[in-house]
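can u do me a favor
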């Protein structure tokens, strides 16, 4: 390993480039932290009973100026989903890369001209150093537990698109160096082996490039979505090979790779400790139940998993966890290595805080009120029993779920539920295991995701397709519970949920939760209105599965509109929301579904000048 010379121009290119981007990122973090202080101040004044407008935001000012750049487009053969602002950002990033490769350190050494600097023998190494810095960013952006997310407010899944783009740009910047050194190695003695393995330096460079190539090839979307385990573990193997070989190849790599790789390694070790050995974060699987709704053969059933997990006390609505669910009857230890991202659909926090005690008192009030309304109560029970008879593959009734809800709210350990739709081989096997009541083992890592600040808006509108409802469930529940408990920092007084499902049977796993919402709304301390718009795309009417010709229970709820054999017209839905909201400039939109579905909603929300957040797993 040769001695590192820090005075060379291509090293100056590397560290000045790194300082430039870290400087810009620091300014962004400062603006974010100032915004957090202003938001906290506004909420504190609201908690004292003062009427406060939406807090001033430094980053929000830029957001309003460049609002039109939030528009999302599809780029054929590249991506199905990319905002214009990201295209502009990537273009700016590439321009800065070219400037640094060609011109940094922006002055000439003695007795040198630009003609000397622009030779391919120097330019390939300058490009490689810039690519090396980009890959150091890639390691950090791909880690779940880093100071970067804490400082910037950007979530792990929000950084993943930048992780991918920087990796591609950095890989392209390696190619000129790799190709030129292959040519130079072969031209020494015109021996084919020398092109790749002429000496230690040449050989380690080749091995490093193989590691980076493994990362690049296995990260294509088709592999990520269909063979997630191959993508995931190829990344780990590729990182180890590329890092060791690159540092052996060029001593300067230590300065850029090792700090980033150490952060990545710490992230891996910390996640493993939390998932396997930490008693404080011990995970206990309480129940795994499947709702196949006579659709098991089509792979459309849903598995509900209920579990206790200590770290849920740090959970915020809309967040997700990584889980591994192993069927113990198969006795395959390798299955413990299969981690998948799952959105939490509901959380039950222990009754220890003032808010939790208020919720408990409110629930007791609701229970007393319901007992005095025997007629309506009997009708609800009959409807719930009818639902249970419609559901197949379910190991417990809806009334059992309601009893379980009351029990979980009195527990001292936080718990959560996952609703997992059978969309692939892994989730279909999980559905079958639930139907057969096989014993499962659960490990959890998380929660991860942003803190969604819906409470500073008068109206929250959630748009979901199919199982994409899960993040919206926690948002709606959190908003309704806080308003019902009289939390003044939540100014949201209207919640709109637009949900597209195939058949009404898909409502079965969520029956008790939806009824719980309506009970909370009707007894809320601070008034809140819940509007439900259900679009049933593959069913003509509710009588299809009801021999007695009665309405489905969802159709009997107040402010609930059910449309059969139709998909939601997003523009019309948003126009209706705009008509009934108390402040059409204070609307927060959340969406989760297919790329096409979310792209339409994002663009329509931007057209109305509303703040919008989308959920998507692009790992």
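np, heres the sequence
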């Amino acid at each position: 390993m040769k001695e590192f010379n820090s005075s060379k121009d291509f090293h100056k290119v590397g560290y000045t480039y790194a300082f430039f981007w870290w400087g810009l990122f620091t300014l962004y973090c400062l603006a974010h932290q100032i915004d957090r202080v202003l938001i906290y101040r506004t909420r504190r004044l609201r908690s004292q009973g003062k009427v406060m407008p939406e807090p001033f935001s430094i980053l929000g000012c830029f957001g309003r100026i460049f609002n039109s750049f939030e528009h999302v487009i599809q780029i054929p053969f590249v991506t199905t989903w990319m905002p214009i602002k990201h295209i502009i950002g990537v273009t700016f990033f590439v321009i800065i890369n070219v400037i640094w490769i060609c011109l940094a350190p922006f002055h000439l050494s003695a007795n040198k001209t630009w003609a000397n600097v622009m030779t391919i023998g120097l330019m390939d190494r300058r490009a490689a150093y810039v690519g090396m810095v980009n890959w150091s960013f890639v390691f950090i952006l791909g880690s779940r537990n880093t100071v970067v997310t804490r400082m910037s407010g950007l979530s792990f899944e929000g950084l993943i698109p930048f992780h991918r783009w920087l990796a591609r740009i950095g890989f392209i910047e390696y190619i000129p160096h790799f190709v030129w050194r292959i040519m130079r190695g072969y031209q020494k003695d015109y021996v084919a082996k020398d092109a790749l393995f002429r000496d230690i330096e040449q050989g380690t460079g080749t091995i490093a490039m193989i590691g980076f190539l493994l990362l690049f090839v296995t990260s294509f979307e088709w592999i990520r979505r269909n063979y997630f385990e191959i993508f995931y573990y190829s990344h780990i193997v590729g990182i180890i090979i590329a890092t060791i070989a690159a540092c052996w190849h060029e001593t300067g790599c230590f300065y850029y790779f090792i700090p980033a790789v150490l952060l990545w390694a710490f992230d891996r070790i910390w996640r493993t400790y939390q998932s396997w050995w930490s008693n404080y974060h011990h995970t206990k699987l309480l129940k795994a139940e499947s709702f196949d709704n006579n659709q098991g053969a089509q792979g459309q059933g849903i598995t509900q998993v209920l579990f206790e997990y200590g770290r849920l006390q740090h959970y915020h609505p809309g967040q997700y966890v990584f889980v591994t669910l192993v069927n113990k009857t198969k006795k395959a230890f390798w299955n413990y290595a299969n981690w998948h991202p799952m959105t939490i659909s509901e959380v039950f926090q222990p009754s220890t805080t003032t808010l939790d005690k208020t919720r408990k008192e409110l629930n007791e009030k609701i229970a007393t009120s319901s007992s005095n309304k025997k007629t309506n109560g009997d009708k609800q029970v009959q409807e719930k029993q009818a639902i249970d008879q419609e559901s197949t593959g379910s190991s417990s009734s809806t009334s059992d779920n309601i009893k379980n809800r009351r029990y979980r709210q009195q527990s001292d350990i936080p718990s959560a539920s996952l609703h997992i739709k059978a969309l692939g081989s892994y989730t279909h096997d999980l559905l079958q295991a639930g139907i057969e009541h096989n014993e499962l083992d659960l490990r959890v890592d998380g929660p991860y995701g942003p803190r969604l600040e819906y409470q500073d808006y008068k109206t929250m509108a959630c748009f979901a397709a199919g199982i994409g409802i899960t993040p919206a469930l926690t948002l709606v529940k959190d908003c309704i519970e806080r308003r019902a408990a009289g939390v003044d920092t939540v100014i949201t007084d209207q919640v709109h949920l637009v949900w597209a499902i195939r058949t009404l049977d898909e409502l079965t796993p969520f029956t008790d939760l939806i009824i719980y919402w309506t009970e909370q709304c009707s007894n809320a301390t601070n008034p809140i209105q819940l509007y439900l718009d259900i679009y049933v795309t593959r069913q003509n009417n509710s009588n299809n599965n009801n021999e007695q010709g009665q309405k489905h229970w969802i159709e009997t709820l107040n402010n609930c509109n059910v449309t059969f054999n139709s998909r939601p017209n997003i523009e019309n839905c948003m126009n209706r929301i705009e008509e009934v909201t108390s402040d059409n400039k204070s609307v927060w939109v959340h969406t989760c579904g297919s790329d096409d579905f979310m792209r339409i909603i994002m663009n329509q929300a931007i057209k109305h000048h509303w703040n919008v957040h989308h959920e998507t797993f692009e790992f």
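Residues 9-270 form one domain. hope that helps!!
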